[in-house]
Amino acid sequence: METELLAMRSAVESARYLLEAPGAAEARRLRDAVLNQLDDYVVPRFAQLDAPLLAVVGGSTGAGKSTLVNALVGDVVTRPGALRPTTRDPVLIHHPEDARWFEGQRILPGLPRVHGDGTAPAASPAADADAGSALRLVAHPGVRQGLGLLDAPDVDSVVDSNRHLAAQLLAAADLWIFVTTANRYADAVPWELLRDASARDVVVAIVLDRIPAGVMDEVAYDLYQMLGTEGLARAPLFLLPEQPLGPDGMLPAESVAGLRGWLDTLTFDAVTRSAVVRQTLAGATRRAAEHVLDLADALDEQAATRADLRTRVERAYTTEAVADALGDGSLLRGEVLARWQDFVGTGELFRSLEAGIGRLRDKLGAFVTGRPQPEEQVQQAIGEGLHAVLVAAADEAAERAQTALRADTAGRALLAGRDWTRATDGFEDRAATTIRDWQTFIVDLVRTEGRTRRTGARVLAFGVNGVGVVLMILAFSATGGLMGAEIAIAGGTAVVAQRLLEAIFGEEGVRRLARTAREDLLARVDRLLASERQRFLDLLVEEGADADDLRASARAVLDRVTAA
What we know:
This protein folds into 3 domains: 1-50 and 270-316; 53-266, Rossmann fold (3-Layer(aba) Sandwich); 317-538, no CATH class. It contains 21 helices and 8 strands. It has helices at residues 2-14, 24-47, 65-73, 99-103, 160-171, 188-199, 216-229, 257-266, 270-316, 320-327, 334-344, 346-355, 357-369, 375-406, 409-414, 427-449, 453-462, 464-476, 485-505, 507-538, 547-563; strands at residues 53-59, 91-94, 113-115, 135-139, 147-151, 175-181, 203-211, 237-241. The chain has an 8-stranded mixed beta sheet with strand order 3-4-2-5-1-6-7-8, sandwiched between helices.
């Protein structure tokens, strides 16, 4: 069992609920509670099943817990106060022969120990005055050997730290002595804890204190009914009428005789103590494992939310806008079109086209070698136009991604304080590098395709860079999105580019080269935009254990509990 418990604890500790997904806040609270239960009670108790019983005396504010503890011990060992909250530091009273069991860190390892006089036990680190509560140890022969009585803070304290500590102490107990009053027994907060005790099969005794004369039967019956409804019908109920305290602030010894007798029965010998321990421990272990299954479900919710947010980001960063710009002819307008017309001599070639494409091939060699071609200007214009498209695409994608994330509660929390509606710093330089690399690839592609003697001669006649520029133009050409006269201009440009390349590589070769040029550019753009979206995806990195880890560890523990 210890092996399975430690594996489950490790899985719970590594579980992360970083996204504000549905149920995340409750999952974080439950995770902390499960770890506290395992560390404070389950794991150390399995390691030392023969340790004394720990009975935690808990209850509502001013219910008389400290007074009850003093009466059980027969001495003033913990002092109630007139102020609220009354009990600030928990006080653990044990038999002197049991000191070794409580001075170490076996239970409640997060709490430093101090003796009643304020000194720290040798086996425990000294308490830091600024560290919060300490567990005060009081050795007294009035407590039966094999039992520790712990006077806990109020479960409904107005001080958050006291309230949380009270719940933690109750979770670390082998048995509960729950104290309430005739005026407070129906309060909501105590019953939340009692329901949890019922679910964990904790051994519980209820003390109804300060019952006014004349209403004992009525109040007792009502409380019995409530206990039965909440699965605590077998919990013994001890009734203490309203009565004056002695000069030393003590209850009469006979008023707690029944409760003391019940405790003596449970601690009579090792066998009876073991029965209590095993009942509470089995229930606490089962309940912890069930909570771990709940934590696994919460991790599923985290994963679903994370996947949804990732999809939103990935949809924002697509190459569709760039692909549309490549295909709608928009890159062939303005400076690119002017430089291209300068390069190929628009007028002469258009007249040739009007006379028939066949005569163009005959005249191509003389035309392209008759004068120097300013391909560098076309290539630069292409680069500048493409650069503008990429920068705009990155800015628009960033804005889409941020808007998509902010539409979700978890996304808004991730983006708190961030304004990521523009491309990242340095994107313009990276885009320029991507374009230069692609243009270099195109030239190398042309050079590779022109290795045969016949094709090579045609490429050399026109110039490798010149052919590369023509291939770039062809990769951008289409008529979608253009209007009026622009259709004729861009369409004619595309035809010129295609016929020039067909004269060199043939019709099938041109289709293959244009497809390769376009696909390579889009692949580079995709990588460029992927690097941009990574800052959003980095917010969604999955950390720690996954739901399957939690479920496997919890089921292994549950199998052990069932087998036992």
